[in-house]
């Protein structure tokens, strides 16, 4: 088995900058491709990396800020014509929050967009993306031979509890993915992911302040891909104290990330999701982030590739884990999204099981519809004429 990490884009924040694409990473396992986040330019970066859209199996979204999902429509729709005969792309990500987060006097929204469903989850997002591009999906097959649009994609909400115990959210063919909840300001839920294969393990922090849950998830991993921010730089360039307090609740500072890697006992720390993102803004990321970390620290860049090789510390644990990898494919009912806008229906959440780091029996997933939302869009009851 061969496992390779490719950083497709390493910029943090929505505003485009020269020299870095939006945040997105690929993990290739024996030719199978898995993505973590789909920021700006990720479909083009996917091609630039020599990856094959027909081998893309799943996208794992860490949270629903636009810099992490802004090019998810392109990742779904651009390769539609070449994905005939392959299973639907699966998009895993956070479920709806229990309630829409509230602001305060200093930080609040002026307008609530889509008040009937102001806090959609991943499955809602995928369904609404298909609805937004319904013209293309319905008309293009009349002029070109296209695969069935109803088999294009499935969106799956992940129900990950807030505690430090990782849960398995995907287990198929020698690839096991575990997740924990992390803290990223008001963006709840936000997730971090760990990929375990026979070759080793890679953890993606997502966006988070220093997280005990993440440290638990990353224990002994070969590679930790961690977001990084230079909060002092942001302060020097005009952020006031109230803004800085918000930023500290959103991100891990460059002075803190090495300590996270050291406590997690990872083999290599790779920095990504840089804030500030402009390549010349900060030039000593690796030196500063590596303070307090005894392993290797690398400042990531777009296109960076890393073969995943088992560390000596990880090998004994891996010997127990490999026997359980892929023993049972994820037996979850991945309900097809996009065959109709039945907005009044319950939305599935996929509940993971506690991560068993020694392998063993895998009872898989339980798909459950556990929360209906009164007033879903189907209850709006207005016609197009009402909007004229």
Number of helical stretches of at least 4 residues: 11
Mean pLDDT: 85
For the record, give the distance between the C-alpha atoms at the N and C termini, rounded to a whole number: 58 Å
The CATH superfamily title of the domain at 3-101 and 116-196 and 304-318? Ribonuclease Z/Hydroxyacylglutathione hydrolase-like
Question: What is the CATH topology assignment of the domain at 3-101 and 116-196 and 304-318?
Answer: Metallo-beta-lactamase, Chain A
Low-pLDDT windows of residues: 326-351, 353-388
Helix amount? 10-25%
Q: How many E-type strands?
A: 17
CATH C-level class of the domain at 3-101 and 116-196 and 304-318 is Alpha Beta
Reading side by side through the largest sheet, how are the strands ordered? 14-1-2-3-4-5-6-15-17
General shape: globular
User: What is the element string, with H for helices and E for strands?
Assistant: EEEHEHHEHHEEEEEHEHHHEHEEHEEE
Kindly estimate the percentage of residues that lie in beta strands according to DSSP.
15-25%
Structural class: alpha/beta
Strand count, sense and barrel status of the largest sheet are: 9 strands, mixed
* CATH architecture assignment of the domain at 3-101 and 116-196 and 304-318: 4-Layer Sandwich
* Radius of gyration over C-alpha positions, nearest whole angstrom: 21 Å
């Amino acid at each position: 088995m061969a496992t390779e990490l490719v950083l497709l884009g390493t910029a943090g924040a929505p505003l485009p900058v020269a020299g870095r694409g939006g945040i997105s990473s690929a993990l290739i396992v024996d030719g199978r491709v898995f993505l973590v986040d789909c920021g700006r330019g990720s479909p083009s970066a996917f091609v630039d990396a020599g990856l094959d859209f027909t081998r893309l199996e799943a996208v794992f979204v860490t949270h629903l800020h636009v810099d992490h999902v802004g090019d998810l429509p392109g990742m779904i729709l651009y390769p539609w014509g070449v994905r005939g005969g392959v299973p639907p792309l699966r998009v895993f990500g956070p479920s709806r929050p229990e309630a829409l987060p509230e602001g305060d006097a200093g930080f609040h929204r002026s307008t609530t967009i889509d008040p009937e469903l102001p806090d959609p989850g991943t499955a809602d997002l995928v369904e609404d993306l298909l609805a937004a591009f319904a013209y293309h999906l319905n008309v293009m097959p009349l002029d070109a031979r296209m695969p069935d649009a109803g088999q294009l994609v499935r969106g799956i909400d992940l129900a990950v509890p807030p505690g430090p115990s990782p849960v398995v959210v995907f287990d198929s063919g020698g690839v096991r993915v575990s997740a924990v909840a992390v803290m990223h300001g008001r963006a709840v839920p936000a997730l971090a992911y760990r990929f375990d294969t026979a070759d080793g393990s890679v953890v993606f922090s997502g966006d988070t302040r220093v997280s005990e849950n993440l440290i638990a998830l990353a224990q002994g991993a070969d590679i930790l891909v961690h977001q990084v921010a230079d909060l002092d730089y942001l302060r020097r360039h005009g952020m006031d104290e109230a803004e800085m307090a918000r930023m500290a609740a959103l991100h891990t500072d460059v002075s803190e990330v090495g300590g996270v890697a050291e406590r997690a006992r990872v083999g290599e720390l790779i920095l990504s999701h840089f804030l500030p993102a402009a390549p010349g803004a900060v030039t000593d990321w690796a030196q500063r982030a590596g303070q307090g970390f005894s392993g290797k620290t690398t400042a990531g860049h777009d296109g960076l590739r890393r073969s995943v090789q088992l560390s000596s510390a990880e090998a004994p644990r891996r010997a127990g884990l490999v026997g359980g990898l892929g023993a049972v494919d994820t037996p979850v009912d991945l309900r097809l999204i996009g065959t109709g806008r039945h907005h009044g229906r319950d939305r599935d959440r996929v509940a993971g099981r506690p991560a068993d780091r020694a392998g063993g029996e895998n009872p898989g997933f339980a798909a459950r519809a556990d929360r209906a939302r009164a007033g879903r869009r189907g209850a709006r009851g207005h016609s197009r004429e009402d909007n004229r």
